Amino acid sequence: MSHDNSIETFADQVKAIPGGENLEICYSCGTCVSKCMIQQKLEPDFNPRRLLRMVMMDMREEAFESPTTWYCSQCDLCYSACPQEIHISAVIAAVKQLAVEAGYSTPLSTVTVDETLCAGCGICVMACPYEATHLIQKEVAGVMDLFSEVDENRCMGCGICVAACPLGAISREGVSNEEINKQIKVKNQKFAPSLVIFICDWCLRENDDLSILESYPANVRVIHIPCSGRIDPQMALLALRSGIDGILVCGCKPGECHYQHGTDITTCKINLLDTMIDQIKLKDHHVKFVQIGTQERGRIRQEIDNMLETLTARKESH
Amino acid sequence: MVDAARQSKIDLRAYTEVERVEGFVGNFKVTLREKAKYVIADRCNGCGDCSSVCPIEVPNYFELNIAPRKAIYVPMSQSVPLIYSIDMNACIKCFKCVEACGPLEAIDFSQEDKLVTEDIGAIVVATGFSHFDPSVMEEYGYGKFPNVITSMEMERLNNSAGPTAGNLIRPSDNKNPQKLAFINCVGSRDKRFNEGCSNFCCMYSIKNAVLLKQMNPEVDITIYYIDIRTPSKGYEEFYDRARKMGIHFTQGRPSLITEDPETHNLYVHSEDIALGEVIEHEYDMIMLNTAAIPQPDQNKMSSVLNVAQSPGGWYMEYHPKLRPMDSPTDGIFFAGACQGPKDIPASVAQGSAAASRASRILHSKEWEIEPTVAVVWPDRCVSADGKSCGLCAKACPYGAVDYVKGKAAEIITAKCHGCGACVAECPHDAITQLHFTDAQILAQMRALLAEEPHKKILAFRCHWCSYGGADLAGTSHFEYTANERGMRVMCSARMDSDFIYEAYRLGAGAVLYSGCHPQDCHYITGQLIGAKRAKRLSTIFERMQMTPGRFRIAWISAAEGDKYARVLNEMQTVLDNIPEKQLLEEIERLKPEVTKRLRRFPNVPGVQDAMDFSDMMVTAITTKESSA
């Protein structure tokens, strides 16, 4: 899409893109900013209210360079709270589209495809919540075939495709299969039940809750992943094999997932995993998925305590 | 209120509902349901002995259900008249109250609801407003977190006659809160719930904050707001005073309240717009200033009274600026928040205005109405021949048509407001509107389309909105096509299909059908009738394969002069894009079609004369021109 009319204002351009229409009715109440998890946890300069203002004031370059344009993962927590019903993430997406057209690119770290491993099966294409992966015909090492390719400006780095890839061809810095597996393999504490917690980066809103996680002894191991959708059943099985008693996966409440539907994917994965554990008769072991909402301050402590209690009871009964 | 009760000319009917309103200004017949109190009003002296022996306790509505009341009760201690009544849904019929009442013998379990009909000259509606229930806004946790309450609940807790005798306590642990926050605009200025501003909450939260601070200067109070609106006299000064007292004002609408599960303290997440930073503060208790919303039975009452409602559900006034206390129906007036959220001074002013308007009616022997009323030709009405029709009665927004099958329809002139909906709807042209007769309108049309009609755009405008819009376009110097020819009728409901067909038969290039926006209609539902007809017409013209854009429907308010100019210019562009020859051919092609639909039109009294006369004039002018 090109914009030939040079006198068109930035706001007009944004409004012309579907989703950008309602931009003007923002009355700067700041609801979107304080609701946003990115603002809270990742980038203090992330401010949708200010981005909308920049669009209105024709501050094109500032908007294109603003982290707000690039960091939004369209979780729509702000849209559901906006009293003016402005689809803020759609406005941000419109700004991003214009930014990409103007030659800007994302500062986020995205997933990479190892083409020597990729078989072109297309599972990643189905898994991606952002339509960032697609299959293209190209020649790699003299072989003409279908390969997965990632659109960097669309990828938000949730890692759902990393978990989905059956060949381990996709990885993301910090949460590649190797790095997570390394964290899982720890020596089992002899007496206390051992527990691995896979925790999504977004489900614990409060800093108090994060400090709760650190307050447990070494038999409780916390592994941070970008999205609960990053969970690979293989990782869980590996953990159980290395002597871990229980696995607790924490994700966001349905509808509040930072990566649109990552938490729903996890629900399916954990259900399958449960069935599998039943079938291979690992009765002492326990895998649980909890979905924590933005308002559930302190719930994480409750969940971990319950889990430890269950595991202790199971251990003692054997 | 006590004063009012003492007035010999004021008859208070407590616990009574309006069932039906019939008649018209000065002559209303109002049916009232006097609900059974099970207490004889003349005998009860309000001593309350019955209530103290009653064993049943139910939630007290007046105390917002945070305190109990007995099954035999008065709604509040200052009730006027002070007469007890029994809540039969709660009463177990132990008759202890009868015993306690003793020799007064005021309690009568055999009472039943009574319907009474009264002759009423004028009606003032002062039904007030209701409160938005914030529990639907999950983000604020009302109903989930015990220490999140509404400001109204806080007022009861802080009231010396309230359930805690004025001791403000936290519901979770009954301790006095030290850190408090008020949140404004809960459910108001919010497109998801109520779009409008509730008008008084800014002042109301400042007042409550000042009250609390006066009682205990140690408490820490924050008011979260989007904008502070203090528009009336002395309000800004009060806001200043509150700031000087140390009350914190934070601009930023909280997006989330979370609770510490152990202490039940609350955390408010909001952006501090002044700092440009996200803040999270801990509070002991949070008060939500909920939106003012129309009464739950406002829809029902609006159909009983036959008055319109604005989009938010409030009663709609006759004119927002010039007649804010009048309803569109003569003799019915509004006072206070039933017409829209307003504070005490505004409600008092409106109430006094409504009372004086009403007394004007009571003191007049005659009542002047608009002269543009509808009149029936009884010989043309098919109902007189025993056929069922009643379209006029269905169309009338005021219930002014008295239609009984077998009898010619009659217009109750005092109720008629002159929109002309019935006139245009009558398929037998049996009704006419004084000063806007078919013949008069036709004569105007023919004059406007006398020369080169195919180049003209005939614009039908309603008196109240689009005519005003055209006026504004003129006074604002918005240029629009000089080929426009404007026609004024009172309402878009008067724009008879016959007029539109006739315009095309006369060879008009384009026709504009314009009126008010649906919510602004001056005649309650007139625009809806007009809009329905316009839609039907546009389908018919589509089937006739008329060039799209030659018939245009546009709803233009009196403030939209720019829109009027734009619409006309767009229509001109449509005409410009049709080659003249093709346009003339199309007009000729459609003529038989529209003439077919006009076969009854010349029979309307006066129309043939008007046609003959205008034809004669046109011939006279053209011969004069050609001879000159």
Polypeptide structure, described:
The complex is a heterodimer of chains A (318) and B (628). With 318 residues, chain A is an alpha/beta fold. Chain A has helices at residues 10-16, 31-35, 37-41, 48-56, 60-65, 67-71, 77-81, 88-101, 123-127, 160-164, 177-184, 207-214, 233-241, 262-279, 299-317, and strands at residues 112-113, 133-140, 143-150, 170-171, 195-200, 220-225, 246-252, 286-292. In chain A, helix 4 crosses helix 8 (88-101). The longest helix of chain A has 19 residues, at 299-317. Chain B has 4 domains: 2-125, no CATH class; 130-293, FAD/NAD(P)-binding domain (3-Layer(bba) Sandwich), CATH 3.50.50; 369-435, Alpha-Beta Plaits (2-Layer Sandwich), CATH 3.30.70.20; 436-623, Rossmann fold (3-Layer(aba) Sandwich), CATH 3.40.50. In chain B, helix 5 packs parallel to helix 6 (235-244). Chain A binds chain B through residues 27-35, 39-40, 44, 47, 49-50, 78, 81, 83-85, 205-206, 294-295, 297-299, 302, and chain B through 138-139, 141, 144, 185, 189-192, 226-227, 251-262, 267, 269-273, 276-279.
Kindly report the CATH topology of the largest domain in chain A: Rossmann fold
Q: Kindly state the mean pLDDT of chain A as a whole number? A: 88
What is the topology, as strand order, of the major beta sheet of chain A? 6-5-7-8
Q: How many distinct helices of chain B?
A: 17
- C-alpha end-to-end distance of chain B: 80 Å
Text of the CATH class of the largest domain in chain B: Alpha Beta
Globular, elongated, flat, extended or rod-shaped: what is the shape of chain B? globular
